[in-house]
Write a structure and sequence with these properties.
Cytochrome p450; metal-binding; five-stranded mixed sheet; 2 domains; three-stranded antiparallel sheet; Cyt_P450_E_grp-IV; 483 residues; binds protoporphyrin IX containing FE; alpha+beta
């Protein structure tokens, strides 16, 4: 930090929120893990329309925050030879220490999400709906009395099953042990990176060895998925030897990962690691974002009425099939509700994580040297009164208007999914899944918070940049008496 601050290519020209003197800055970095919201909002208010960048202290380094529409546009346009997304993710997650350098250097699995899931999303609508309905049935059932369930945990389970129907397919997507490994993997990575990122770069590898549970989780995952991977590989090799291609492969992301492994000679263990990284990107992000929305609904159950009207009208138009290729695009209120909940509470208060590969200069004249971790101020941007009327208010119908942007659309005022060529490739998948979940809930249940907690959305928990919907809060569900 001292070098970054004082060094010849240092960050002295970038204004700081908090102290700059090294020891105090370190303490401020520790403080940031609890007070990121206040720090980011203060920095945004002061610098978004002046310097367009400011820095905050993390325990291990400075984080340069990019703020304001002009600078966000500039950040979007820097080339991959100037700023690196994977370098940014590496800094954010301490990825090379926790997941291994290979995952950072060759993220082929992330590319497959784009080609396999996003381009063919409507092919998966039907199976995702079937799996989701069955998951809801198993998790919530059809209670005739109010049933209290831990909201985040329950939604994570529904997301995990639905996502894995497409990622690994049946029967694995219903295997409780596998789903537990897939969801716990994210917690392992998050906990390890939290500790590792308290230390300077030279100590990170040593600390990672002490706290990293990923190797044992990978082994457990291999025990569960390995036989499927091995069988798929044998099939792929046999088919490819006979016909040169593997045409009748299962329609899952895992099969695509195996196909890539056969093509490039990757090991089965690497395939399983890639699978876990996909689970990492897809499950908790979606479940957290959805739970944020569910808390608004439970705090004000009257909001279910207009949502329900819409779901019922669309269901009728689609002959009772909400999983049809066209149904989701007609759910405008549902879409707006989710976009608005995420505007106020994305799972992460920053996005567009980058590491500078060479010096970059913003139009304000500020140069950021190579090797610096930077990120965009997502929540603060989405609370900017220049972008939104009554920005702090939850207005579920804010984006219903025909000209309004849909949930998965990125824009300079809405960057929870990032923007530009690295904008989240899973966002259409996540948006579809979440729309279907909300449609199912309002169609089938009444929801509310328990007496005593009624009418109040439980406060979020901020851990550094992460915005967690209260993980302990329960929501009450009751089967809706349909008219
Ligand atoms: C509400 C849920 C989600 C949120 C808020 C979210 C957010 C983000 C953000 C902010 C980025 C970085 C964008 C940038 O740097 O410009 C990102 C990247 C990424 N996300 Fe998501 N994401 C979500 C769900 C998903 C899902 C469901 C998947 C997979 C199915 C996924 C896969 C990815 C991948 C692969 C990348 C890396 C992009 C690249 O390689 O260029 N995400 N996501």
């Amino acid at each position: 930090m001292l070098w970054n601050w004082l060094g010849p290519n240092g960050l002295r020209g970038v204004p700081t929120v908090g102290p700059t003197f090294p020891v105090l800055a370190y303490l401020s970095g520790l403080r940031y893990t609890k007070y990121a919201r206040e720090t980011l909002l203060a920095g945004y208010a002061k610098y978004a329309y002046t310097t367009g960048v400011f820095k905050v202290s993390l325990p291990d380094q400075w984080l340069v925050i990019v703020a304001g529409p002009k600078q966000l546009e500039e950040l979007k346009k820097f080339g991959d030879d100037e700023v690196s997304l994977y370098g940014g993710i590496d800094e954010l997650m301490a990825a090379r220490h926790i997941l291994g350098a290979d995952v950072v250097n060759n993220p082929y699995h992330l590319r497959l999400i784009q080609t396999k899931l996003t381009r063919n999303l409507s092919d998966f609508h039907g199976v995702m709906k079937d799996e989701m309905w069955s998951a809801f049935d198993d998790c919530i059932g059809a209670p005739t009395e109010w049933r209290s369930l831990p909201a985040l945990k329950t939604m994570l389970w529904v997301v995990s099953r639905t996502t894995n129907r497409v990622v690994v397919g049946l029967p694995l997507c219903r295997n409780t042990e596998f789903l537990t490994v897939a969801t716990d993997f994210t917690l392992d990575v998050s906990q390890a990176r939290f500790v590792v990122n308290m230390f300077p770069p030279s100590l990170k590898p040593v600390v990672a060895k002490l706290v990293n549970r990923v190797p044992s989780r990978l082994k457990k995952a291999y025990d569960l998925v390995g036989p499927t991977v091995e069988a798929l590989r044998a099939e792929a090799e046999q088919e490819t030897a006979l016909t040169g291609t593997w045409d009748d492969k299962p329609n899952t992301l895992l099969a695509a990962l195996v196909e890539e492994a056969v093509k490039y000679g990757y090991s089965d263990l690497k395939t399983v690691m890639s699978l876990l990284v996909v689970e990492f990107t897809a499950l908790h992000t979606t479940a957290m974002s959805f739970t944020h929305a569910l808390y608004y609904l439970a705090a004000d159950p009257s909001l279910a009425i207009p949502l329900r009207e819409e779901v019922e009208a669309v269901s009728q138009e689609e002959n009772g099939d909400l999983g049809s290729k066209t149904a989701a695009s007609k759910l405008k209120r549902i879409d707006s509700f989710l976009r608005e909940a995420q505007r106020l509470n994305g799972p992460n208060s920053t996005s567009m994580w980058r590491k500078t590969l060479k010096p970059i200069t913003f139009s304000t004249g500020i140069t950021i040297p190579a090797g610096v971790f930077l990120s965009a101020a997502a929540t603060a941007t989405q609370l900017d009164g220049n972008h939104y009327e009554n920005p702090d208010m939850f207005d579920p119908w804010r984006f219903v208007d025909a000209n309004a942007r849909s949930f998965a659309t990125t824009s300079p005022e809405y960057i929870t999914f990032g923007q530009g060529k690295h904008a989240c490739p899973g966002r259409h998948f996540a948006a579809y899944e979440m729309k279907l979940m909300l449609a199912y809930i309002v169609h089938n249940f009444d929801v509310k918070f328990a007496p005593g907690a009624e009418g109040v959305r439980p406060p979020n928990k901020w851990i550094g940049n992460t915005i967690l919907p209260d993980p302990a809060a329960h929501v009450l569900f009751k089967k809706r008496a349909k008219t």
